Amino acid sequence: MKNKLDDSRPIYLQIKEQLENDIMNGSLQADERIPSTNEFAQFYKINPATAAKGINELVAENILYKKRGVGMFVAEEAKTILIKKRKQTFYEDYMKPLKREAENLGLGLNELVEMIKGGESDEN
């Protein structure tokens, strides 16, 4: 667990993102148990319902699953789901605005590809 939470963002989102990042970087593997809501609450000194909100969102997204009486675990397909989700977010947050601005500037696809590759267009 991260030592400190950011006061400017909802805590449940930070817990959710922390778990997602741990799955993405391999710190948490498929079928591995995650800390309980009470463990998160005790570590961060927060209400267990706050930690549960972030964890339950991951359950709803099929990234975590519950084993009754045992705890929450990382789903087998969690990393695949997260990669797909992050690719979609990347497209929405970066590619759509990039394409819009390229159109505004009259850049063709080849020029845009060259810029992404790190070279500059000959037409500059």
Automatic annotation (TrEMBL):
Keyword set includes DNA repair: no
Membrane-spanning segments: none
Signal sequence interval, chain numbering: none
InterPro entries: Tscrpt_reg_HTH_GntR, WH-like_DNA-bd_sf, WH_DNA-bd_sf
Keywords attached to this entry: DNA-binding, Transcription, Transcription regulation
Stretches of the chain forming a coiled coil according to its record: none
Domain HTH gntR-type: 9-77
Keyword Transcription regulation: yes
Pfam family, one: GntR
Entry-linked SMART domains: HTH_GNTR (SM00345)
PANTHER family: GNTR-FAMILY TRANSCRIPTIONAL REGULATOR, HTH-TYPE TRANSCRIPTIONAL REPRESSOR YTRA
Listed name of the protein: GntR family transcriptional regulator
